[in-house]
Amino acid sequence: MAVFKNVSLQGNGETTASSNSTPSQEECFGLPTQVIIALHVFTLFASLMGNSLLITAFVRMKEKVILVIANMAASDLLVVIFLLPRFIVAEALRSNVFLIHGGGGTFLCKVCSFFSDMSLSVSTLSLVVIAVERFLAVVYPLLYMKTSGKRRRLLVASTWILAAAFHLPYFYTFRLVREVDNQGYDYHVCQSSWEPAFNDQSARRRYNIFLYTTVLIIPLLVISVLHITVAFHLRKDKMSSCRNENGTKRIRKRTRSLLMMAISTVTAFLICWTLQIATAFVSLFSPGLFRKCSKMHTVVSSLSHILASCYCAINPWICLFLIPRLFRELKIMVHRRTFRQYAMKGQKMGSETESSNVRLRFESRTCSFAPNGDNHEKSTERSY
Questions:
Q1: Cβ-contact 61, 327 below 8 angstroms
Q2: The pTM is what?
Q3: 272: Cβ–Cβ under 8 A, 6 or more apart, which residues?
Q4: Domains of the chain from N-terminus onward
Q5: 239 FRET partner, CA 20 to 30 A, in 18, 162, 260, 331?
């Protein structure tokens, strides 16, 4: 998400990376730092838990149909690993100073920026693949039944290949730059620059337009069109007269589930990304529209970044609550684990009870032989 956060408005009317923020620009921070950090920490834990549960359910079920959902969960986990900690550190320090220098710092600058943005691209492309599969399952069921596990794996691999291809220029553009603040202290920032091979401003603008279009706008349009088509097709059920009452109820339940899933997916996408896309295009095409560090600009920019970063935590919980099989599998897993804990506890209590019974039997047997033992000891003493 570095590219989704690297377009910010500067006072000279040019678009530069937000990672260029220096310690002298602390007054540009809009929302309270504590609030932003709390939201990012909550997003981090919610995303870790939700995506881990999705992947666990996929591993337990071993169903190829859920492979694309597990792929989306894996990409969202990479966002949590490479992006959210950087956001938290930047807010805590109130600057985007890169703390690691040298060759290792340059490597981390390139790799973290690449993987964070690539993972978000994989997530949106996975949503497109899921929408295509639902469209085929409802509109062309015979064609969908011919979809083999190999083809599904190829589709999953293609999401990573396309996302990596979209973001390969990061390894050239992102670099550590040494700067000096007003007080004479030098620091390093991870920023994007297309120079010297290209003109930085024009190349940045074209590349950002390309990324926003291919990674966000086109996927949103494709997902919306496919889900609307599926919804209309489900409402026109031509086989309703051939089903009994139980079959009709089952089909209606599945229809409601699919419609809720479609509405929730598109709504979450719109809520999380609309403001980010709007602010990015305003910064690209009308950089003088907002005054430098104005209250409106800082609040809108902070809010757009928070909503965009929350997207990796919203997807898994939508899938967990609206896909019955996933929720059912996790419920079974929890019940089995609880039963195993109770069984282990019961075995432990049983072993303790058995050992106590053996001890009681031994003590009772010892007590029963005590008189003879005393007489034997007395006779022994007498013999000596």
A1: no
A2: 0.74
A3: 307, 308, 310, 311, 314
A4: 33-237+255-339 (1.20.1070.10)
A5: 260
